[in-house]
């Protein structure tokens, strides 16, 4: 290394030791290689959001699936109406349809409503005709 | 007990904790803490956009949570989660591209082209060009390239996640690198 003293350039003390670590860290951090970043504190918020979602873990269907389901439901309803108009022997079909509808209401619709919501859907005269409970012995 | 069997028994204990209702929540919390970043970056490199990656990573963890009881331990938990994340990301692209009447790859290329205006992309010109070229690769080659080049994963791990032989993965990576080099030369 005869020319060592002729080198006019210098580096800070321990530079190459830290450079090695900097390069290793850089290869470990993929965002510095591919350029993608995230909002500040994203991963702290993400953890909270994931754990909050688990209290009611439901996978939301994509918009396409929702549109498809709506289309199928509309088609089924249209078919039911056509059948009820043109078919005389439709009582069994209607009964099944009612049953399915009631089950749907109980399972998916009424679950999310409180008694006030349900009462607000009834007409006044319907509320008045609801059976009353006698407290007489 | 050697290191491999020790890790295996540790994993079994952890999976047991995930399956037990009494310990499930605590175990899942540490699972999220451990894997959220790795899975996010894996997904992000597939879907490219931050908001999309955010949706997919959440669905991934929900699926892990909902399906942990059926996890048979034929693979490591890490592999299983990566597989779910990969499938979720690919299904997301399929759903998005179908909605827009595009092929999957056309959609990915369009997203890559818009990275220049993405506030969550701060790569230099070279990084941007690389992303655009990687987006032009066929799906499998793109996955393999991302996992090998950016994540530094070994072929054995990628093989388990993508359920593809190591030989086929090496061929995919080789083809991907060749195409990228060729397109980089064309751009110069």
Features:
heterodimer, A: mainly alpha, 7 helices, disordered N terminus, B: 188 residues, mainly alpha, Rna Polymerase Sigma Factor, Chain: A, 9 helices, 79% helix
Summary, kept brief:
With 137 residues, chain A is mainly alpha-helical.
Write structural notes for this entry:
Chain A contains 7 helices and no strands. Chain A is an all-alpha fold. The termini of chain A are far apart. By secondary structure, chain B is mainly α. Chain B has helices at residues 3-19, 21-47, 50-67, 77-99, 104-113, 125-135, 139-150, 155-162, 166-187. The A-B interface holds A 27, 30-31, 33-39, 43, 46-47, 49-51, 53-54, 57-59, 62-64 and B 25, 28-29, 32-33, 36-37, 40-41, 44-45, 48, 50, 54, 57-59, 61-63, 65-66, 95, 98-99, 115, 120-124, 127-128, 130-131, 150-152.
Question: How are the SSEs placed, and which strands pair?
Answer:
The complex is a heterodimer of chains A (137) and B (188).
Chain A: H1 15-28, H2 30-34, H3 42-53, H4 63-86, H5 91-109, H6 115-120, H7 124-128
Chain B: H1 3-19, H2 21-47, H3 50-67, H4 77-99, H5 104-113, H6 125-135, H7 139-150, H8 155-162, H9 166-187
Helix pairs in contact in B: 1-2, 2-3, 2-4, 3-4, 4-5, 4-8, 5-6, 6-9, 7-9
Annotated CATH topology of chain B: Rna Polymerase Sigma Factor, Chain: A
Q: Indicate the CATH architecture of chain B.
A: Orthogonal Bundle
Count of helical stretches of chain B? 9
User: What does the largest sheet of chain A look like?
Assistant: none
Number of strands of chain B: 0
The number of helical elements of chain A comes to 7
* Uncertain stretches of 5 or more adjacent residues of chain A: 1-5, 89-96, 104-114, 128-137
**CATH uppermost class of chain B:** Mainly Alpha
Q: Roughly what fraction of the amino acids of chain A lie in strands?
A: under 5%
Summing up helix and strand content along with how strands pair, one would put the structural category of chain B as mainly alpha
Unreliable sequence segments of chain B: none
The sequence of SSEs of chain B as H and E is: HHHHHHHHH
